[in-house]
TrEMBL record:
This protein's name: TIGR01841 family phasin
Superkingdom assignment: Bacteria
Residue intervals of the Phasin domain: 18-106
InterPro entries, per the entry: Phasin, Phasin_subfam-1
Organism of this sequence: Duganella margarita
């Protein structure tokens, strides 16, 4: 019978690590999607504000009204930027919370599987070392087994 490849403990560890990475990747993709939506919303709001300001410049009557409308044209939409910054902060803090929770939920399984894999590797190495020492002792008749 052929040995299983990969070893069941290695397979378990790979599954646990992939589960961790998939959980984190899902959060990152959702965050990128939300940030893209925020960017689109900001762009729409800034374009709408620029259009409204341009209308005010064109509809202005008198030098004073024209000057104030023209100055407002060069001032970016502060409320749109405040909303954007607040939205970005919310999206990123939510992502950080989800990633922290994902890591807290899945890291114990990753640690357990890594420990089990390392213990099994150590036991197998010890067993093979003892077996090699026995075989070496058989070929050297006057030697004693030392380990």
């Amino acid at each position: 019978m052929f040995p299983q490849f990969p070893h069941p403990l290695v397979r378990s560890h790979i599954d646990n690590v992939l589960d961790l990475y998939v959980g984190m990747s899902q959060c990152m993709f959702e965050t990128a999607h939300r940030l893209s939506a925020l960017n689109l919303q900001l762009g729409r709001e800034l374009i709408a504000e620029a259009g409204a300001r341009t209308e005010r410049v064109l509809a202005s009557q008198g030098a004073g009204q024209f000057g104030s409308a023209l100055i407002a044209q060069f001032t970016p939409g502060s409320q749109a930027m405040v909303n954007y910054q607040r939205g970005v902060a919310e999206v990123l803090s939510r992502c950080q919370a989800v990633i922290s929770q994902t890591a807290a939920d899945r890291m114990p399984a990753v640690r357990r599987s890594a420990t089990a894999m390392a213990d099994d590797l150590l036991q197998e190495a010890s067993r093979q070392t003892a077996q090699a020492a026995e075989q070496l002792a058989r070929f050297q008749p006057g030697s004693q087994l030392r380990h």
